Amino acid sequence: MDQGKKLLYCVEKHGVTIVVELPQYLYEAGWAASGNVIACTQPRRVAATSVATRVAAEVGTILGEEVGYTIRFEDVSHKERTRIKYMTDGMLFRETMLDPLLSKYSVIMIDEAHERSIYTDLMLGILKKIRRKRPSLRLIISSATLDASFFLDYFNLGNSPNESIIVSLEGRMFPVEVAYLREPTSDYVREAVKVVWGIHLQQGRGDILVFLTGREEIDRLPRTAGALSLLPLYAGLPNEDQMRVFEPAERGTRKVILSTNIAEASVTIENIRFVVDCGFVKVFPSLFPVCYPVHALSAQVDPYIQPDVHSFLSHRGPTSYASATQRAGRAGRTAPGFCYRLYPESVLPTLPRTSAPEIVRTDLTTPILQLKSLGIDDLIKFEWVTNPPAESVLRALEALVNSGMVDSEGRLTELFNSKEYKCGAEILTIAAMTSVQDVFVIPDGAAGALAELERRKFTAEEGDHLTLLNDSRAYGRMVSFACSVIPSYVAAVSIRAQLKKYMVRFGLPLDSCEGDQKRLRKCLVGGYWRNGRDGWPMERSELCEAILSVMFTRKPRTGWVVFHEMEETKKIHIRIITEIEPDWLLEYGHKLVEKRS
Asked: Which residues belong to any copy of the Helicase ATP-binding domain (predicted)?
């Protein structure tokens, strides 16, 4: 039996099929007939968009017609004509809020399940629940070989022994020659540069993929170096910049992609012949042993120490054996290749087997709120793929109860501060503006001086949230002074349009506060109440350098602020800050938590 027939036989006979690699057969076999849709999820948006683009070409259709994709704030699909739909696992999770049984899908494929993103885990639990009510739904779980038996046991538990089956469909892989350093290096970024340059001077044709641990390391390197074209690839990069890595290198140049582990799986970049692997990921030392790897892209929250800190820790640890294997394999997707590991071969047996699932190391406030919106109130009975730490669950529930989103019985409440304060229009704009990175970037030279003078005209002394609101309103004037702001503002406009659709759908008013700054800031406190801070002035180093804060040079009259986000690198940084009155926190009934000693 060939691989295609083998796969189709398993999909027909079993409710859940777990595969190692999957060719595209289901569409041709008729699983998208009679108005049905085949869903394929990816942990990351760059994978969803790139795979959809490739499959559309293979099927012979225009992207957005029979084959489409949907990621956050971007939907390239047709409601009636799309039959294969790629999406992030988070987007499929959101669809369950509108259609709890996902009734339009005949087959749902969860790709790269071994990466264990939080929404992958949540979707697996929900899909297991859906299959009991809708057994006609077929699931395909695509996983690395090491994790396949784990998923088999998960889906068979509590079901018939024949609920799941493992099928190994080996894809075409070319041989990859692996080389190691003789001795450990004290600076793997510098070592990576040396190796890349050596490859360029001594090896034949082919592009280079370099694995580093985060944006701060990638930003250390230039964007051009002679005949080398260096392209960044990380989760926070705008989608259009991420897609640049798939474009062919210009004639006479060699492409060097500087990536976090976003490129470990799913993403197939043509002409990669060389991989340089630093061998490290960012580690969360307060939860795991120092040597234990943690996913390098996700916002980490320590549930035992700082529940409100989005931590991108500067401390790093070795990657897992599974990740090292995935990274090396990137060099052998389209031709024989080479992988240069920037550590001694003796380290390999000491690496952890796999990486820790995201659910054990992230803030659960939003995921639990979303589960409750689906009617899943009893979290103990929910079939978690891996149980989250009890402390994380308790902290999340405590935050939801204190915010008024969940009542004392653990049930979801109706709470919309923008409706109470009649400032839905402004909150909508602020939410969109805070969803994009680097909203305002000052160019170099004379253009930068003009841009800074123009920006100051729209500064709100109350803080950054209101300044972003002013900047958005002045967008048309700003374009002529600072072209570098355009992509972020265009993205914010798109995000606002998407959010507006949700507000209209749920009947939330889009009233304006008509310039009432106090009312608007009170509404912000309702959403940011956990992010209140006193003890101003803060150290200047605490202000995130990537975002210019109007509070950088001025002291709030009250000494109190709320902030949008807190991140931890070598120091704690807060970004997007607005002055508030401390009494406003108490008006919501929230009790101020005393600082821990």
From this structure: 23-164
